[in-house]
């Protein structure tokens, strides 16, 4: 196996880098009791190589350890089952996140990454929750009232069946069905009450009963508004991920600054250039890039409308792009030819 793999194969690099990491924080969690355990560096190599090659499923990783010679090489012929791989990932999320940063720094030191320019983008992922279960306070209060009414009806039906059983001394199957319905309604009632409590404490306008962290947004290229998450990443020209984060903001305007700062924190290097789509375009972001001395290639957030000539139409003749600035008098001339002089400065709030 050692001679079968090219000297510059990615799995060799992953193994060398991971085996240079200090995995003592994970090793201290291991117990001396029970069965022999896999060394954390072996399982960490498996996860990171899987991420690098697009294999993230613990079941697929377990299968590769049996059938793929590159996995067999750095796993040293060990064949952990999918539960072992899944538990290792689940129980060491914080440590794996730190190793991700360590690996980014190592690759940067080795010259594999050029932090001078980064590319930032995001994608929306659907939450595992129904959009119908997202409601405001009034919606939950109405739902709670309906549930309480249903519980009252079920209790009366249970009482009727109990009285009939007392007379006949026979257990009716309908009672078991009613008890199940009653249990479900009581559980739902507790969930709604807890959701209302969270909305009050966190001052949220809406919340999803199933996934309370998810926010309403367009996900997966769909025009439908559904509960979901906004996943952000900053990468180099050759595809190395320098920073990543999952947020609940429905748009990308507030993510440019965090991605640049996380990149600089992870690599201990300054970002000199960045490119992003028009979803990141805002005056505050342009100001931030200017203050940091970063060359930003970020089009205006209305770039597509400009490109299509939308603002040249009669319906949009009063759009600000149709106002002409006069530098000598520090004023604007509107489409009607009237002059507008400076009055005051107002900072617009970014809605998320």
Task: Please tell me about this protein's structure.
The model has no long low-confidence stretch (mean pLDDT 80). The protein is built from twelve helices and eleven strands. Helix 1 (10-18) packs antiparallel against helix 3, helix 4 packs across helix 6 and helix 8 runs antiparallel to helix 9. Strands 1, 4, 5, 6, 7 and 8 form a six-stranded mixed sheet that branches. Strands 9-10-11 form a three-stranded antiparallel sheet, with no helix packed on it. A two-stranded antiparallel sheet has the order 2-3. The two termini are 53 Å apart. 21% of the residues are buried. It is of the alpha+beta class and 352 residues long. Helix content is 45%, strand content 15%. The protein has helices spanning 10-18, 24-27, 40-52, 58-67, 69-74, 82-91, 93-109, 137-168, 173-202, 256-267, 283-292, 303-308, and strands spanning 117-126, 134-136, 206-208, 215-218, 225-235, 241-247, 273-275, 295-297, 324-326, 331-333, 339-341. It folds into four domains: 10-111; 113-129 and 214-301, 2-Layer Sandwich (Nucleotidyltransferase, domain 5); 131-208; 302-352, no CATH class.
How many structural units, i.e. domains?
4
Number of strands: 11
Structural class, by secondary structure, is alpha+beta
Low-confidence stretches: none
Question: Under CATH, the topology of the largest domain is which?
Answer: Nucleotidyltransferase, domain 5
Number of distinct helices: 12
What is the radius of gyration? 29 Å
Straight-line N-to-C gap = 53 Å
- Going by CATH, the architecture of the largest domain would be 2-Layer Sandwich
CATH class of the largest domain: Alpha Beta
How would you sum up the global shape? flat
Helix content: 40-55%
Order of helices and strands: HHHHHHHEEHHEEEEHEHEHEEE
Main beta-sheet annotation: 6 strands, mixed
Q: What value does the average pLDDT take? A: 80
Beta-strand percentage range: 15-25%
Superfamily (CATH H level) name of the largest domain: Ribonuclease H-like superfamily/Ribonuclease H
């Amino acid at each position: 196996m050692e001679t079968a793999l090219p000297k510059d194969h990615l799995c060799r690099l992953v193994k060398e880098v991971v085996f240079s990491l200090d995995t003592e924080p994970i090793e201290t969690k291991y117990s001396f009791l029970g069965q022999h355990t896999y060394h954390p560096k072996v399982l960490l190599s498996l996860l990171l190589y899987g991420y690098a090659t697009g294999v993230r499923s613990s079941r697929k990783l377990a299968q590769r350890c049996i059938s793929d010679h590159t996995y067999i090489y750095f796993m040293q012929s060990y064949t952990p089952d999918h539960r072992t791989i899944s538990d290792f990932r689940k129980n060491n999320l914080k440590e794996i996140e730190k190793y991700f940063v360590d690996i980014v720094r190592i690759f940067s030191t080795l010259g594999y990454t050029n932090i001078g320019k980064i590319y930032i983008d995001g994608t929306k992922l659907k939450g595992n929750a129904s959009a119908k279960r997202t409601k405001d306070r009034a919606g939950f209060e109405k739902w709670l009232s309906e549930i309480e009414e249903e519980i009252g009806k079920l209790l009366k039906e249970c009482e009727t069946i109990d009285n009939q059983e007392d007379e006949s001394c026979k257990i009716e199957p309908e009672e078991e069905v009613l008890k199940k319905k009653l249990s479900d309604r009581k559980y739902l009632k507790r969930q709604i009450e807890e959701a209302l409590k969270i909305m009050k404490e966190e001052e949220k306008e809406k919340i999803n009963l199933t996934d309370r962290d998810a926010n309403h947004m367009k996900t997966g290229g769909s025009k439908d508004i559904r509960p979901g998450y906004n996943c952000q990443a900053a990468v180099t020209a050759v595809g190395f991920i320098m920073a990543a984060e999952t947020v609940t903001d429905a748009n990308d305007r507030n993510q440019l600054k965090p991605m640049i700062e996380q990149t600089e924190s992870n690599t201990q290097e300054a970002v000199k250039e960045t490119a992003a789509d028009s979803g990141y375009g805002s005056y505050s972001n342009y100001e931030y890039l200017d203050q940091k001395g970063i060359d930003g290639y970020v089009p205006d957030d209305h770039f597509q409308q400009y490109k299509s000539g939308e603002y040249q139409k009669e319906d949009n003749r009063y759009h600000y792009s149709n106002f002409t600035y006069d530098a000598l008098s520090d004023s604007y001339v509107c489409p009607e030819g009237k002059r507008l002089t400076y009055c005051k400065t107002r900072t617009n709030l970014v809605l998320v």
